[in-house]
Automatic annotation (TrEMBL):
This is AAA family ATPase. Transmembrane segments: none annotated. One of its GO terms (molecular function) is ATP binding. Coiled coil: none annotated.
Length: 41
């Protein structure tokens, strides 16, 4: 999401898409180490 505007090229279009995604999203705060780190080590 950090580079969303550059990826899509049109900031207005990118904002519209993000607004629709984030509006209906459930945010989860996760704690602890990443499981991916353990899998790749």
């Amino acid at each position: 999401i950090e580079h969303w505007h550059a990826y899509l090229g049109d900031p207005t279009f990118a904002d519209a898409i993000l607004d629709r995604i984030v509006h209906a999203a459930h945010k989860l705060a996760l704690k602890g180490e990443s499981m991916r780190k353990k899998a790749t080590a």
